[in-house]
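Attaching the record inline, Q. Sequence:
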Amino acid sequence: MSESDKEITTEEFPFTISFSKTIYGSKIPRKKRAPRAVKHLRDFVKRHAKVENVIIDQKVNQAIWSRGIQKPPRRIRVKVVKTEEDTAEVFLEEAMKERKGIVPELITSVESTGTKDNNE
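Structure, as predicted:
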């Protein structure tokens, strides 16, 4: 079979990854919690999607680091897309933002100014 005959199959998996036990439950120093959360995310995806290469989207990384290095979120909802046999990409699931009522425009204004814009 030539490369043009092969179809690229993609599989999508939604996951809720809990960082509670690995970060807050064990004796992890405060200054190493967010980097440990990223490592835990990468290991989780490797184990469950059965891949070797994991590409983490920038929005997922920003969501983990949103509260700083000392207090990453206890859990995060992601969508894993397995593109090739040994590669998977991790994206933030947008449904999580809509359920909590967070407006994307508000997030960008907080990031750019550092404070919320009060519409009074």
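The chain has one domain: 11-113. The two ends are 64 Å apart (CA to CA).

More tomorrow.
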